[in-house]
């Protein structure tokens, strides 16, 4: 139930920013509960992406690949079994990724969801994995939601 409320709140927040005349600005009571952490990057610039460590299982390029994003304290190997099974059973490409400051990916002082989303926005096109299906657990799920909201104008 709590996760559903967080998703609803995030969607409400995103909708309000697309349609500011409907509320949810600084004077709105829900504004302080926006579930996306502000970026810790300096000067309000976009976060600087880091080169993420990943494992890509080969498959057909005709269907969108599956991208697994782990939770806090996790790493890409958390999904080894399911990634391998899904690649074999569906024939899709499957990507598992170490988020910044996790596993084999580089460390950075910026650990915001914006930075983690930017890392993926940098990596996925490099690998030819756009569009894709994002599957995230906990922190990875929140990163996936932010990325989907930031790229919602793109065709599926």
Can you tell me about this structure?
This protein has 156 residues and is of the alpha/beta class. It is 35% helix and 10% strand. It has a four-stranded mixed beta sheet with strand order 1-3-2-4. Helix 2 links the parallel strand 2 and strand 3. About 17% of the residues have low confidence.
Compose a concise summary of this entry:
The protein is of the alpha/beta class. It is built from four helices and four strands, in the order H-E-E-H-E-H-E-H. 35% of the residues lie in helices and 10% in strands.
Tell me the fraction of residues in β-strands, as a range. Answer: 5-15%
Low-confidence parts lasting 5 or more residues at pLDDT below 50?
16-42
Topology as a string of helices (H) and strands (E): HEEHEHEH
Mean pLDDT: 81
Secondary structure tally, helices = 4
InterPro entries: AB_hydrolase_1 (IPR000073), AB_hydrolase_fold (IPR029058)
Domain AB hydrolase-1: 64-151
Organism: Phocoena sinus
EC number: 3.1.1.116
Features:
35% helix, 156 residues, 4-stranded mixed sheet, 4 strands
């Amino acid at each position: 139930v709590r996760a559903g409320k967080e998703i609803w709140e995030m969607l409400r927040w995103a909708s309000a920013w697309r349609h500011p005349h409907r509320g949810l600005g600084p004077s709105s009571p829900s504004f302080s509960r926006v579930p996306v952490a502000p970026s810790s990057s300096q000067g309000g610039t976009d976060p600087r992406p880091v080169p993420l460590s990943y494992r890509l299982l080969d498959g057909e390029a005709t269907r969108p690949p599956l991208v697994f994003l782990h939770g806090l304290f996790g790493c890409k190997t958390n999904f080894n079994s399911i990634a391998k099974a899904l690649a074999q059973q569906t024939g899709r490409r499957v990507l598992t990724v170490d988020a910044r400051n996790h596993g084999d990916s580089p460390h950075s002082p910026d650990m915001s969801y914006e930075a983690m989303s930017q890392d993926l926005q940098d990596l996925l096109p490099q690998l030819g994995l756009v569009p894709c299906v994002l599957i995230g657990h906990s922190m990875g799920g929140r990163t996936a939601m932010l990325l989907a909201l930031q790229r919602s104008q793109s065709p599926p």
